[in-house]
Design a protein that fits this description.
By secondary structure, the chain is an alpha+beta fold. It has one domain. The protein is built from two helices and four strands.
Length: about 130
């Protein structure tokens, strides 16, 4: 998977430090989601040991043909795992990564989001 070909990503303008992704190719083309927290769980129990990569995500938009209960399906979860690892590797090599992080961390947050989601996901201001 390649950035700006198969997907685009940015820091979220909705959730601090989440990564919003729009898929541009493949079975899930058109899907918009955000990755939240992630972590690697490692364990040793006697002679047994293992690793598990956990991550949170929220789907904001998906094409109709992808809506058949994909959340929790092994092949979909593996696709997202591979996608997230690819994004982490790309971000690590991005020379502007620090500037993007500082913008996301600023008081005003991400100002010019390229990946739009429906306004229903944003909190309404209370008078």
């Amino acid at each position: 998977m390649k950035n700006n070909i198969d997907y685009i990503y940015e820091y979220s303008d909705l959730n601090l430090f989440n990564t919003r992704v729009k898929l541009l190719t493949g079975d899930y083309k058109g899907m918009v989601l955000e990755f939240g927290g992630s972590g690697l769980l490692q364990w040793v129990n006697g002679e047994e040991s293992g690793n598990k990569f956990n991550f949170d995500y929220t789907i904001f938009d998906m094409p109709d043909e992808s809506k058949s209960n994909i959340k929790g399906k092994i092949e979909f979860e593996q696709y997202l795992c591979d996608l997230l690892i690819t994004i982490i590797e790309h971000r690590r090599n991005d020379k502007k990564a620090h500037d993007k992080l500082m913008e996301a961390a600023s008081k005003s947050g991400v100002k010019n989001s390229k990946i739009k989601i429906d306004k229903k996901w944003y909190k309404k201001k209370v008078a």
